[in-house]
Amino acid sequence: MANQEHLDIFRQGIDTWNTWRENHPEIRPDLSGITLMRADLSGIDLQGVDVRGAILVSANLSHANLRIADFSGANLQGANLEDADLSEAGLAGAQLAGANLQRANLGNADLYGTTFSIAKLVGANLRYAHLNGADFGQADLTEVDLSQSNLRGASFLGANLTNTILKKSSLDHINFRQRDLSKSILILDTTDGPEK
To answer: Is the predicted pLDDT of residue 170 greater than 90, yes or no?
Structure first.
């Protein structure tokens, strides 16, 4: 359950929230379970915030600072996370089907059991994303576009990679152990490589 004081500050708008975060870096806000469908949260600072179980369907979180935030079990279906920083974020069991994660930074993020694709929703867009060291264990990546992404050191143990697009992605030191890649679109030409 979210902290009422934190919710009250959050409802005053992004500028007020970001200023409060800047002035109180020692506080770890609790917005768990919040419902913000289709909300415009572009550029918000949710670094380290507890947003477990939040409903952020189709929310705009582009360019947001979401580092080390806990989105475990959150519903982010169709959300815009383009250029967001989700490095070291906890997204275990989150719903990201249809989400736009293009150029997002998910380095060392916990994506264990995350669903990136469900029936009737197109797979998430992770083109050009930074996913180095991310844990995709047991994640559903069916029809997800990982083209030109940095996947160095990522783990895919038990992940579903059916029709996953890995075109021109960096695949150094990846753990695909026990994964059948025969149904993935796997093109190892890295001449253009992922964006730095």
So the answer is: no
